Structure formats: C-alpha cells, structure tokens
Amino acid sequence: MSSDASRTDAVLPKTIVPSGIDDPVERARAELKAALAAIEVKGNLPRRAAEATERGVARAKTFAERSPVAAAAAAVSVAAAVGVAIWGVARIVSR
C-alpha cells in the first residue's frame, strides 16, 4: 500500500468506499466494511444521542456567550415548563 492510499483512507469516513480498487474481491470487502460501518453508525442510538447532546450543549454555550440575558430567560422558562409538567403529572396521578 502506498503512502497516498493510506492518506486517502485516513481522510475518508468509515462509511465511504475508497475509489480506485480494481480487484473485485477487495472492492466487495471494502463495500461490506462500509455497509457494516454505516449500520453501526445508524444503529448505535446511545452514541447518536450523546453526539446530539454534545452538539446541543455547544450551541447553548455559544448562545449564552453571545446573549447571556436571553440565555438566562430561556433557562428560567425551560425550568418553569418542566415544573409545570411535573406538577401536572403529579396532580393527575394523585386523583
């Protein structure tokens, strides 16, 4: 394997089949590897949830740095909404 091919493999995501594979067996292996990686990425819900949470936290931090007053107001309104929802569920359950 040349250094160019290893550099290309390092840049491509696991779910992409590298181009330039002439051997049909190697191409089939590469396609299978990419398909299995795609299934793993799609099916790994805890990992996807963790990544989405990280993106949300990063967006919230950026928003809080840009406009701290609006971020504080959003935090208070979210806390109030959660409190009202819990109060509503407790009221329904207690009946």
Rg, please?
24 Å
- Quickly give the structural class: mainly alpha
Helix tally equals 4
The backbone outline, from C-alpha atoms, is: elongated
Number of strands: 0
Round the mean pLDDT to the nearest integer and report it: 87
Give start-end ranges of low-pLDDT stretches: none
Q: Name the beta content range.
A: under 5%
User: What composes the largest sheet?
Assistant: none
Head-to-tail CA distance between termini: 71 Å
Order of helices and strands: HHHH
Helix content: over 70%
Explain what the structure shows.
The chain has 95 residues and is an all-alpha fold. The chain contains 4 helices and no strands.
Labels describing this entry:
mainly alpha; elongated; 4 helices; 95 residues
Characterize this entry briefly.
This protein is mainly alpha-helical and 95 residues long. Helices cover 82% and strands 0% of the residues.
What is the secondary structure topology, with strand pairs?
Elements: H1 3-11, H2 24-43, H3 45-66, H4 68-94
Helix pairs in contact: 3-4
